[in-house]
Amino acid sequence: MASDREEFNVPEGGAWAVLISLLCFFALATAIAMGLSEKSPLKALIRPSDAFLSARGTAGWYAVGASFFASGMGAWIVYGTTEMGATRALSWWAVIGYATASAVPAVLLCFLGPVVKKSVGGDSFGFSATDFALERYGRLMHIHVSCVSCFYMYIYIVAELTSIGNVYALLVGKDISGNESESYTTRVAIAVIVATWAYTAAGGLPASIFTDKFQGVVIAAVVTLLTIATSTLKRNEVSKSEFDDATGWFSKGFETLITLWIAITSAELFNQGTWQRVFAARSDKDMRIGFLLGAVLVTLIMLFFGVMGMLAYANDREAYDTFQKLAYLSFFDLLLPLPRAWHYVTLALLTTLAASSVDTLQNGLSAVLSRDLVKHGLSPNWSRLVIVGFNIAAVVQAADRFEVVPLFLVADLVCATSVGPLFFGLIKHDIPLGLFDLKIPAPTELGAFLGCLSGIATVMVNGEINDVNKAVNPYTGKVYDKSAFAYFWLTNTKSDGTPYECALCGTKTMVTFIVTPLISTAACFLFSAIDIYVGGARAREPFLVVPRLDCVEDGVLDKVGLAKKTDGDGVVAPSTDVVTKATPKLSSGEDDDDDDDDHCLEDGRIEPPPSSSSN
């Protein structure tokens, strides 16, 4: 049956025409957006404004919804949900799990978004959840959360480039299982990454949101047409009894649903591209309506691809059960008999999906650095150069063609180690339990950081329990990792040593995703309690301060509502002694020589000390 896939015969020239024309169109749309939004586009390009970085307060509900929908659905969706649908043991539970789990982060942001935005002063400052880590905890957690966020977004880009390269190779008739098409897929990846970097570097977040508006419409329209075309083709038709027999509600599918809910929710809360939409929304109402709209659209498109996988499996069960056909390619088995024009349409759809995701992720990576760059009066162009480094590494790693779902699992599990300690930081006051004067402490920075490390340790211990000392693909034998962190790949097998039906499957994987955030969160509160017991009120202060980065006006050194002393009830009370508390190196009897230190301006930039001639 492998020869059937060779029937895809889109000419390479035609495929390149689709790719280049769409990428050029997105770049043109960016130029138009810059011309409409900036009085001096050239000046905005050389010296980007706050609007370039945040599009603060400019996006209505439709823009937020379309942007979340378009940017959240990448080219990977033709593999993920279809594999769930074409694997009978997973079927309905897993398809519904994937579809709804992809929408859950948007629903959560309806509640978390306004609180986090207010915490970092999002109406006038702040760009992402990493800024919340800085404001709420301090520089140590900010660095850790930034690393986790960058890792997740980088892996997402790698997965997108891998997916779009493989799709193009498959539809032009190249073998994607060997090295024959590696050069071709790498060239496709380079084209996508260079074009998206160019127009996001030029237009920033406003460009991404602007292109997402019509990308969302294109995606919805094309998916609708593909639904009609693939499901009404006589060769793809299945009877109701065949469909019912090929699908079902099985316990393995429910385990996968639980895994997906925790994994995707944990990961997407570290996607700073999504958080940028929180700060870009015109109002909290626009943000909530937009995210709910995006959640509905995401659920529908994921369900579409899942049902397509079910139809493909029902159409040829024997081929899938004997691995003559592969579940993750099931959508293409339905696409194969359609006229070539539909193959071009599919390329256009997946190019749009990939571009909308990659440009959002690049903006998200830029947002991680934006606060410190702006605060110190440095050009945001430095972030553009950093993104170049991420892009080069992503193209190189995409050439290795890791399986997409295992790649996401690694990133998801890394995020699960830290999601609890970060967002339980929204608790800013100790919570009395009403029993023996016991209280649940508001997390401290050291407690939160040790909680994150406990999450990492939990994964490693799970690896020892499950006797996994190296990560090996159970199907191909490819070794992913031999280090102590090998279990992050979750290459579990059944008790008899045979592989599970998919990378997401299995009780061991589900248990790992349940216990990791639970233990990291519990450890966060435990270590915070110990920190406060040992350090007293000083434990409420940032654990790590970088003098050249963390000025008095910065929330790290003067956190309103997270002050450096408590009242009689152990509740954090505001501090009015800014200079003393902001400068831990000084005791109460020492003088602060203003002439020897840099000062912070009102906008947060560092002012150099006055020269001797000015005295």
Describe it.
This protein is mainly alpha-helical and 615 residues long. The protein is 63% helix and 3% strand. The chain has 24 helices and 8 strands. The strands form 4 sheets. Strands 1-2 form a two-stranded antiparallel ribbon. Strands 3-4 form a two-stranded antiparallel ribbon. The chain has a two-stranded antiparallel sheet with strand order 5-6. Helix 8 runs antiparallel to helix 15 (284-315) and helix 11 packs across helix 18 (340-375). The longest helix has 51 residues, at 182-232. The radius of gyration is 25 Å and the shape is globular. The N and C termini lie far apart (85 Å).
Summarize the structure.
This protein is mainly alpha-helical. The protein contains 24 helices and 8 strands.
